[in-house]
Design a protein that fits this description.
heterodimer, A: 2 domains, 13% strand, globular, B: alpha/beta, seven-stranded mixed sheet, three-stranded antiparallel sheet, 8 helices, disordered N terminus, disordered C terminus, binds zinc ion, lyase activity (chain A), Carbon-phosphorus lyase complex subunit PhnI (chain A), plasmid (chain A), PhnI (chain A), lyase (chain A)
Chain lengths: 368, 297
């Protein structure tokens, strides 16, 4: 007899109980604390904050734990929370020149004011599994002093000679957009594009950035500078008449220096791609800066010949919460539509068989 | 972190609801036109009804009675989940009965029972742009709508006929609204298209991921695209519903065993239950008493 295959409330409740069980795992082991996630899986927390566009390490850590380590799920959970938060206003642009730099490298100069500062990087580690971590052996204190140095931005060094374009300004009278509060429309100005890239999927941007290096929209990039450290966030309060500090956030900034031939109106000048990401994520900031530069085709009258240069393609597909939702929605029931397709295919098959039978009869007749 | 659990009535804040209502009003004023709106990030995944949920949340009042269906059924998992969401965040009365509902949120179906004045049908829409698969760029498709340039769509339908002898579109079958905009009816089977025409109910369409809202106001012309020599036609089923005996309704195919056994039952579960409650019985339900009852009717 007919067995109802449709799920109900009980099935959903049971599934969620099982999920909670799997999330907790073996009860004889202590559960991970939020503090442990913040302290020991800091880069996972950073990624969740960056792509959820919400700077709160404790909540991001909670999301990572709740999502069993599934990064996109964690980003989704944190975004759904962010969306309910009231807006008090928009902060002043952060001044990364005043960053307390923990890491700062430039590929364009051997040495420069403030020097090269490696900081806490995986670079030059040998990627050998480290058994000492299993035994939880004591870890030595770092040699370096506390971060806190302000160092000149490389783009300002080049800017002194007029060899590089400036920081970039939006046209006069342009009101800064908010991707999370306005409908998306194309063509999209650079302020909104950068917002979309900053919260875009790290893997997607990495692949697109990589594609520009392999010739799909080549931009001849040099890392002018990557810097990681803390910057102050300020909010301008009209009632007070001055900006007040809201606190410090850790960010990664990448200034990519790209080749550009001059035009009739402009002398030859380097151009730039820009990346700025919450937390420590050089891969994301560098990818973002490459894609930002690739997308600036209209400013430099470049032909759009590659995916990374196509803003509708890039921006429409960079958001992993949107992407995962839509890809995974295919597992929702679609049987009503499938039934319609099934019906049509059966009908077309009948017509095909009938036509073929008719054709064979015709052949026989002709032979007789 | 402990006072997180307080949400506004129907989840969205009032400012957001006002923004969405403005988009809905504009959509009603220009039937079939896709109005961009600042879609919010909802606590369910994109593609799972975030557009429909935002529309419903914005029009829902404390006295509304809500029905949620997916594939025509009230008990499909996502319908259960969305209904539970509104019970939780709006404490709203819910029903499975089409005629008792003031707002019906749906995915992929229009109820069999004719909707009445005062009812609102909210569709969940994955891809609002009917021209999307002919032209992937939003910048281009908006131009095509503005210029009423729909030749490409007719070429596509014509190519279907040339290749297959049929228009091979069975769901999300494009319609023209009030003689102006070509509109995607959402992925409902084309069987449901005629129900949209001159409907007494207000029909609202929400696409969350694509950030678009559109509408068909009551008593609006909705015409499925076709050709004079290939007129639009809906799916026909050979047999009536195996449970309630209904004809001229949309049926789901249910596989009974691994030997090719099949049965066809109403996709609209409320319609089917209602008919059975009124004594109708299909082949698989038929008992002698009921059969004689049917014969007597
Ligand atoms: Zn039935």
């Amino acid at each position: 007899m007919y067995v109802a295959v449709k799920g109900g409330e009980a099935a959903i409740a049971n599934a969620h109980r099982l999920l909670a069980d799997r999330r907790r795992g073996d009860r004889s082991l202590p559960s991970i604390t939020i503090e442990q996630v913040v302290e020991q899986l800091g880069l996972a927390v950073d990624r969740v904050m960056a792509e959820a566009s919400l700077y709160d390490p404790a909540l991001a850590a909670l999301a990572v734990r709740q999502a069993r380590g599934d990064m996109i799920e964690a980003i989704f959970i944190l975004r759904a929370y962010r969306t309910t938060l009231p807006r008090f206003g928009y902060s002043e642009p952060v001044d990364t020149a005043t960053m307390k730099v923990e890491r700062r490298v430039s590929a364009t100069y051997k040495d420069l004011p403030g020097g090269q500062l490696l900081g806490p990087t995986f670079d030059y580690t040998h990627r050998l599994l480290d058994p000492s971590l299993i035994a939880d052996e004591a870890v030595a204190e770092p040699a370096a002093k506390e971060p806190g140095e302000h160092v000149m931005r490389v783009s300002d060094i080049l800017d002194g000679e007029g060899l590089i374009e400036g920081d970039g300004r939006m046209p006069e009278g342009h009101v800064m957009g908010d991707l999370t509060r306005e409908p998306m429309e194309f063509p999209m100005a650079r302020d909104l594009r950068l917002q979309a890239l900053a919260r875009g999927d790290e893997g997607f941007l990495l692949a697109l950035a990589y594609s520009t290096q392999r010739g799909y929209g080549r931009t001849h990039p040099f890392v002018g500078e990557v810097r990681i450290g803390e910057v102050e966030v300020e909010l301008d309060l009209p009632e007070l008449g001055f900006a007040v500090s809201l606190g410090l956030i850790r960010v990664t900034e990448c200034q990519m220096v790209n080749q550009f031939k001059g035009s009739a109106k402009q002398p030859p000048q380097f151009t730039r791609g820009y990346g700025l990401v919450f937390g420590q994520s050089e891969r994301k900031a560098m990818s973002m800066s490459l894609v930002d530069r690739a997308l600036r085709t209209d400013e430099f009258s470049e032909d759009i010949v590659a995916p990374a240069q196509d803003q509708e393609f890039v921006i429409s597909h960079a958001d992993n919460v949107q992407a995962t939702g839509f890809v995974e929605h295919l597992k929702l029931p679609h049987y009503v539509d499938f039934q319609a397709e099934l019906d049509l295919v059966r009908r077309m098959r009948r017509e095909y068989e009938a036509a073929r039978a008719g054709g064979e009869d015709g052949m026989k007749e002709a032979a007789e | 972190m402990n006072d997180l659990a307080t949400y506004n009535f129907a989840y969205l804040d009032e400012q957001t609801k006002r923004m969405i209502r403005r988009a809905i009003l504009k959509a009603v004023a220009i039937p079939g036109y896709q109005v961009p709106f600042a879609s919010r990030e909802m606590p369910m995944p994109y593609g799972w009804g975030t557009g429909g949920v935002q529309v419903t949340a914005s029009i829902l009042g404390p006295n509304d009675v809500l029905k949620v269906i997916d594939q025509g059924a009230d008990d499909t998992t996502n319908a259960v989940s969305i209904r539970a969401f509104f019970q939780k965040v709006a404490d709203v009365a819910v029903t499975t009965k089409t005629k008792d509902a003031t707002i019906i949120q749906t995915r992929h179906r229009i109820p069999e029972e004719t909707l009445k004045e005062g009812q609102t049908l909210v569709y969940q829409v994955p891809i609002p742009e009917p021209l999307r698969f002919l032209e992937p760029r939003e910048t281009e498709t908006r131009k095509m709508h503005a210029l009423e340039e729909y030749g490409l769509m007719h070429v596509k339908l014509y190519e279907d006929i040339a290749r297959n002898g049929h228009i091979a579109t069975t769901y999300a079958y494009p319609v023209k609204v009030e003689g102006r905009y070509v509109m995607d009816p959402s992925p409902t089977p084309k069987f449901d298209n005629p129900k949209m025409h001159m409907s007494e109910a207000l029909q609202l369409f929400g696409a969350g991921r694509e950030k678009r809202i559109y509408a068909v106001p009551p008593y609006t012309e909705v015409v499925s695209l076709d050709f004079e020599d290939h007129p639009f036609e809906i799916q026909q089923f050979d047999k009536p519903c195996a449970l309630c005996g209904a004809e001229n309704v949309y049926l789901d195919e249910v596989v009974l065993d691994d030997k090719g056994g099949r049965m066809f039952v109403c996709s609209d579960t409320d319609h089917c239950e209602d008919r059975r409650a009124h004594g109708h019985a299909g082949q698989m339900l038929a008992r002698p008493t009921q059969e004689s009852q049917e014969a007597a009717e």
